[in-house]
Amino acid sequence: MVSPDVVLTAALSIFLSLALCGALVLVLVSLRKPTDVPLIIAGVLVVLCVLVVAVSPLNVPLFVALGIALLGTALAVLGGNPVTRRVLEIATHGRVPEGDNGGILLRAPSIAGGAEGAVREVLRGGTTIGYLERIAVALGLIAGFPESIAVVVALKGIGRFSELAAAEARERFIIGTLASLVWACAVAALVRLAIW
After folding, report:
1. Helix, strand, coil % (nearest 5) of the chain?
2. What gap in Å lies between CA 139 and CA 157, rounded to an integer?
3. pLDDT one-digit tens code per residue, 145-164
4. pLDDT digits (tens, 9 = 90+) for 111-127
5. Which residues pair with residue 61 across a beta bridge?
6. Are the CB atoms for 39 and 86 separated by under 8 Å?
7. φ, ψ for residue 120, nearest 5 deg
8. E strands, the chain, where?
9. How many other β-carbons are positioned within 10 Å of the β-carbon of residue 66?
10. Best exposed site among 15, 24, 55, 195 by fewest CB in 10 Å?
């Protein structure tokens, strides 16, 4: 006879795997054009999974834990892109034009009585930096190194310091970083609770 603990662990493992797969598919659908409905459903799935692993004891086998860790890491890294882009879109109401290199276009202040200032792109490479920050944070949290969040934020702040003179750049930097890190931390916490 199979013990109830084994059945519960198997059911929760299947639920987590399916929910993570579903959330991953939803964020992948939203990679090109972030839309509210798939991202909200993906967020609800992540929150539901966090609640499930927080209240139920799980002792998943190693191969299932590896699968959950891989799915969760992929979801943390890839899902942060459309989530962050949608949050930034909502926050700026589309008033800050985006550049060709992933940054934002800012007009330099004009000289008194002179011509209008030139347009320059700041915060270039934000998409790539976002992927790298979510990889570092997710793997750090899953491995039990929550200090990785402080390291990532410090490195990012130092690297972007010279570009944060304009209010639009500061706003985008703060909102984008927080949205990206909240998503990565939520998914990584889910994985950490599920497999350890």
Report:
1. 70, 5, 25
2. 20
3. 999 999 999 998 898 887 78
4. 555 556 677 778 788 88
5. none
6. yes
7. -135, 155
8. 104-107, 119-122
9. 12
10. 55
Task: Report the share of the chain in percent with pLDDT over 70.
Answer: 94
68-101 residue pLDDT tens? 999 999 999 999 999 999 998 899 887 777 777 7
| Encoded tokens for 195 | 């497999």
The burial class, CB within 10 Å (0-12 / 13-18 / 19+), for 26 is buried
Amino acid, res. 183: W
Instruction: In the chain, count H helices and then E strands.
Output: 6, 2
Residue 50's identity, in one-letter code, is: V
What distance in Å separates the CA atoms of residue 34 and residue 57, rounded to the nearest whole number? 35
Owner of token pair 């008194």: 112
Tokens linked to 46: 């992540």
